Amino acid sequence: MLAERARLIDVLAALSLTTDLATGFPFERGLRACMVADGLARALELDPPDHRAAFLASLVRAVGCGHASENAALFGDDIAFERFLVTFDPGDETVVGAQLAAFETAVGATGMQRFLAVAPSVGPVAVRASCEVAVALGTQLGLPAIVVESFGDVFERWDGRGLPSGRVGEALHPIARIVGVAEQAAIAHALGGVAAARSEIARRAGGHLDPSVCEVFLANADEVLAPIDGAEDLVDAVRAAEPAPVLWLSPVDLERPCMALATFADLKGFYLIGHSPHVTELALDAARLAGLEEVEDLRIAAMLHDIGRAGVVSSIWDRPGALGAADRERVRLHPHWTERVLSSTPLLAALAPLAAAHHERLDGSGYHRGARAADLPRGARLLAAADVLAAMTEDRPHRPAHTRDQAARLVQDEAVAGRLDPEMAAAVIEAAGGRRPRTAWPTDLTDREVDVLRLTARGLSNKEIASSLVVSPRTVQNHLAAVYGKTGRRTRAGAAVFAVEHGLV
Q: Residues 318, 341: contact at Cβ < 8 Å?
C-alpha cells in the first residue's frame, strides 16, 4: 500500500534505472552520476539551488531518449546506439577510431555505414527531438526550471562539436557542464575505479568537457568518488544525499511524475505510445465496477506496468512480422525488468509484484514467472485483463486495432480458456463500453489536426499520413505546422509526448 506521503526522489530513481535499460548501461549508472554530481557540487561550492539542480539533472539526464524507434530503424539496435552516443568523443583522434570500431561490432557494417552517412543531417534533428522530450518530461516530473533548461545542452560540447546547436564554451548551460563531468566520471569509475575516472576526465578536459569543472574534479576525485565506493545500496545513498528541501508528494501529486515515467517507456515503440494511460484508465474503471479496494495502488501499478519495455530494442516492438525465438524471449523479460526497477525504491517496491504480473495467466501459461491462479490476487488479474483489451484495441505493427466488440470477444475467449479471470474480464469489457467521446480538443486543435497528430505520434511520414487521411502531403504539412504552432512543440517526438499528456493517443 502506498504511503500517505511520497518522495519525488523515489520516482526519479526509478526513472534513472529505466533510462539505464534504455541506454544499455548496467543498472545504477544514473545513480552513480548523481552521487558524483553531489560531491562535485560541494567541491565547486555551488549555492543550494545550483547544487540541487546538478544533483537532479545528473540523476535523470537520459530522460530525453525518446528517439528510439527512429534510431532502431537506422541502426537496428537503438540501445547500442544510445550507449555509443553517451561516450563517443569525436574530438579526440586517439580514441575515436576504437569507439567507432566498437560501435560497428554492435550494429554491424550496415548500421555503421548509415551512421556515417546520416550523422551530419539526422544527428541535429534527432538530438533536438531528444532535448524537446527531456524538457516536456522534466516539466511533467515537476523538476525545477533550471534542471529542465539544462537538458537542452546535455549533448553539447565545450569545443563546439556537440549537438544540436554546436554551442561553445561558456555558452553551455552551467548545470549541463557539471552533468557532463559527473556522467563521464561515473561511467569510467564503474569500469576501472578512481584511476580510470581521473584519466578519462583529464583526457576530455577542454574538448568534450569544461576544463575548469574537470580541474576541480581532478583535485578532489578521491573525496568525490568515495561515497560511491562505500555505498551498499545506491538508491539509499541517493535518497540520503538529496539536497534540502526534500520534495514530498501526496498520492494525487504522485500520479503526474509516474505518468511521465510511463510515457518515457511508451516512447520505445511507435505503436506503444499512449498504451500505459489507456491501460490505467481501463483498469481504474473496471476496478470500481468490480468493487476492488486499494485503487490508488492499482492506478500507479497500471501506469508503470510496462516500464521494463525500455530494456528491449525498439526494432522488436516495431517489427511488422513474426518474432523469432530469441526476440520472443527478450519480450518475455520486460515484466522482469519492470519488477527489478520498481523493487529498487522504497516507495514503489510494494507495487512491483502487481505491476510485473500483467502477462501472467491463471493456468500458468503467462510470463515472466509462470504464476498460477493461487499466486495472482484480484488486482493482478484485473490488470492482466485490462492490458489485453487495451492492446487489442490499439494498432500494432502486425495488425490494425480490433473493434471494441472484437476485442471483447477475444478477452472472453481467454477467460473461457482459463487464462484470464472471468469476473475481471467482464468488468474490463464493461468499462471499455462506458467511455464518452471528447467534446473539445486541447489548445484549440481541430479534429483533423488531432488526426494528423495521432498518426505523427505513430511515426508515420507526411506521405503515409496523407494516404491514410486521403489528403495531399502539402495539406498534411500545413496541418502539422498548425499542430506545432498550437502545442508549442517543434519535433515529432515532442508532439508525441504532447499527445500522451493530453490523452490523444
A: no
User: What is the pLDDT averaged over residues 8-33?
Assistant: 96
Give the Cα separation of 401 and 279 in Å (integer): 15
162, three cell numbers: 556537440
Characterise 79 by phi-psi region: left (phi > 0), alpha (psi -120 to 50), beta (else): alpha
Q: What does the angle CA 450 – CA 145 – CA 501 come to, to the nearest 5 degrees?
A: 20
Helix (H) / strand (E) containing 6: strand 6-7
3-state class percentages of the chain: helix first, strand second, coil last, to nearest 5? 70, 0, 30
Q: Residue 223 above 80 pLDDT?
A: yes
Mean per-residue pLDDT, 112-135: 91
pLDDT at 436: 42
DSSP alpha helix (H) spans, 220-324: 221-229, 234-241, 251-266, 275-290, 295-304, 314-317
The answer to whether the beta carbons of residues 88 and 144 sit under 8 Å apart is no
Alpha carbon distance 118, 56 (integer Å):
33
> Do the Cβ atoms of 89 and 65 come closer than 8 Å?
no
Residue 505 — pLDDT band, cuts 50, 70, 90? Answer: confident
Grid cell locating 354: 502487481
Q: Provide the pLDDT confidence category of residue 3 given band limits of 50, 70 and 90.
A: low
Neighbouring C-beta atoms of residue 370, cutoff 10 Å:
12
- How many residues appear in the chain? 505
Give the SS3 label for residue 105: helix
Q: Is 422 helix (H, G, I), strand (E, B) or coil?
A: helix
Q: Is the pTM of this model over 0.85?
A: yes
Residues 6+ apart with CB under 8 A from 10: 239, 345, 346, 347, 348
